[in-house]
Design brief:
With 316 residues, the protein is α/β, with parallel strands linked by helices. The chain is built from nine helices and eight strands. The protein has a domain of 202 residues. The chain is 49% helix and 15% strand. The termini are far apart. About 2% of the residues have low confidence.
Length: 316
């Protein structure tokens, strides 16, 4: 038995956004969003995740799954495999668009309902944070008082989740494990069979139930991801190599500057020593010349001492 890699958008939408996925998505969202002890989701409607702009010139966007809960709250779920430039802004953009798109022309702002953007990444998005889950809301900068809970961003970084099957203690752990590892499993582990929704999710992800077109679409997606990851790895290697080369050049330049500085210091010391020696010789010559002033003429004294005739004449 083989299962789809749920980290691809095709498989993620099939497992969590298809017609038979409603109860699966409810279990999934309750497990991952019930961190604050709030009301659980009892019902929802899965809708087309395509977010078409209402204003001419605005950007079209896609999310993997979009659902409206029974209480009116909107949840948009996205599975992102590649760490593309500007991704963090896209998450915020999609959430803001989903929030603003609720109102029609002339409708009142109090009709707006909260939007939660749940994003799962197959890469580390926040390297300075060890937590698998991250939650963001609008808060006052100094007191951290909440301005509004209407817009919330929730991130799950799969590479940070390192628990193995015996360590799965909560339903949240099990769902994250399912998303991260389903594609590498060939059976449903006993630990995960205790939850019927996860078992159903494995049933949808079972490749045996896919049509030839669906298998082909999944393989095309894998090929695309392999090419993109290879390109990103090459680009990363090139950047690292360039940085390494620049670091070596900077190190060589620093060493060269240090050598030059030492040479300059040595030259200054040599010049100072030579100046002191020349001054001592000059003083010695002047003293000798003074002793010869009443014996020899200026030209002879200058010849004997190395002084100029003018210097000898000045001593008189």
């Amino acid at each position: 038995m083989r299962f789809l890699d749920v980290k691809t958008d095709f498989a993620f939408k099939k497992v969590f956004g298809s017609e038979q996925s409603k109860h699966i998505l409810i279990s999934f969202l309750n497990a991952l969003l019930d961190y604050q002890g709030g009301d659980t989701i009892t019902d929802l409607t899965i809708i087309d995740p395509y977010q078409a702009p209402k204003i001419l010139g605005m950007k079209d966007t896609y999310v993997d799954v979009k659902a409206v809960c029974a209480n009116g709250n909107t949840v948009i779920i996205e599975m992102q495999v590649l760490n593309v430039e500007g991704f963090e802004k896209r998450v915020l953009y999609n959430a803001a668009k989903a929030y603003s798109a609720q109102l029609g022309k002339g409708e009142k702002y109090h009709l707006l309902n909260p939007v939660i953007a749940l994003t799962l990444t197959d890469f580390v998005m926040f390297p300075d944070q060890p937590e698998v889950f991250s939650h963001y809301r609008l808060l006052e900068k100094q007191t951290l008082a909440q301005y509004s809970g209407d817009l919330e961003l929730v991130f799950i970084e799969l590479p940070k989740f390192t628990k193995e099957l015996p360590e799965l203690a909560t339903i949240s752990d099990k769902w994250v494990y399912f998303v991260k590892n389903a594609g590498s499993l060939d059976y449903v582990p006993d630990t995960l069979q205790a939850d019927p929704c996860i078992v159903d999710a494995f049933g949808i992800a079972n490749q045996a139930g896919l049509t030839e077109e669906e298998l082909e679409a999944q393989e095309r997606r894998f090929d695309f991801l392999r090419v993109q990851r290879a390109f990103q790895d090459q680009l990363k290697d090139a950047v690292e190599q360039r940085l390494l080369t620049e670091e070596k050049l900077l190190k060589k330049e620093l060493e060269y500057r240090q050598i030059l500085e030492k040479q300059r210091e040595a030259e200054k010391k040599q010049e100072a020593a030579e100046a002191r020696a020349a001054e001592a010789e000059h003083i010695k010559a002047v003293n000798i010349a003074r002793n010869l002033l009443d014996i020899l003429d200026d030209a002879t004294i200058a010849q004997k001492t190395g002084l100029t005739v003018e210097e000898v004449s000045a001593l008189r």
